[in-house]
Structures are given as C-alpha cells and as structure tokens.
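Quarterly update, task 2.4: PRP-bound model.
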Amino acid sequence: MIHVLIEREAIAARVAELAREIQRDTPGGGPVHLVAVLKGAFVFLADLLRTFDVPVTCDFMAVSSYGAGQVSSGVVRLTKDLDHDLAGRDVVLVEDIVDSGATLAYLQGLLRARNPRSLRTVCLLDKRSKRRVPVEIDYVGFVIEDRFVVGYGLDANERYRELPFIGVPEEEAEQ
Ligand code: PRP
C-alpha cells in the first residue's frame, strides 16, 4: 500500500508552472536543452518537455552512487554520458529528487565544464533537510520532508516508477 503524498493533478499543475518559469527566464525564446538524469527523472522530463511553448531538445545521462539501498553514499560515478555537446546551449539539468546534494553537485560541475551558454537546474522534489553538499537549485517543484518516496519515476528497488503520483510506502508512512 502506498500513501499518496502529492496527487497527480498537483504534480501536473506544478510542472506546468516550472516550464513557464524556465521559458520566461530563457534568453531569446529558446531552444532550451534539457538534460535529464536517468532513471528517476525520465517521467518528470517527459511531462515537463511537453508543456513548453518554446523549442526544446533533450539528452540523457546516467550516474550511480556507490553503495545500494536508500542512503546515498556521496560518491558518484558517470555510467552514461550525453550524446550531444553543450557548448553555447541554454542547458537545464532535470533531476527528480535532491537529497544529500552529492549527485547534483557532481553533475553541475561536470556540465559547467562543458561551456554551456547558461546552466540552470530544475528538481521536482527537494529533501533539503538532508542536504550535506550545498547546491544551488534554480527551480524547485516541492520541498518535502525526509520520507522515502516512490512514484512518478522514483523507485524502491526498481518498483513503483509507474505510479502517477508521489507516495510513501506503508511501512514508511507508519513511522
Ligand atoms: C536519485 C536522484 C538523484 C539522487 C539524489 O537517484 O535521481 O540522482 O538520487 O540523491 P543525492 O542528492 O543524495 O545525491 P537514484 O540513486 O535513486 O537512482 P535512479 O534515479 O536511477 O532511481
């Protein structure tokens, strides 16, 4: 049983607002180059990209943090690089959730070194009480408490990514 934390309608409304803010801040009306981090961000990216009115392109990268389970180890490794160059592009890094900040800090450094024209970050969920590495996030969907969340791309051992809402598994919700 999964307890709903953020309903699909609330997610859709917030995603549309985020897209509006991103394109409002984009010089010259785009294109906006969205870079998503697999796997969790693919659902957020798919919805975000379809609400833009300006031209959008996208690319994917994958990272893994050493160590299994729900706690991030803080050591990040690139497992799939981008297909396209970032030089001169207005890049928006798309993350599903920022927890310790270790992954985002690593990715922002990596992308910035590739000389995009601009680099901004959007994350759907910000678990800011868990931050260990300070990071700047330009657009935040929802600030959430320190709960283990699934759905809308986020998994528990690869399950629940398909849920249209963000929820808390029952064993966590009871705590
Ligand atoms: C999540 C999320 C971030 C990272 C955030 O990915 O997509 O990449 O954790 O954690 P941090 O702020 O503590 O570094 P996850 O490891 O769950 O992989 P997945 O997206 O493939 O499910």
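Highlight for this quarter: The pocket of PRP is lined by residues 37-41, 65, 72, 95-104, 155 (CB under 6 Å).
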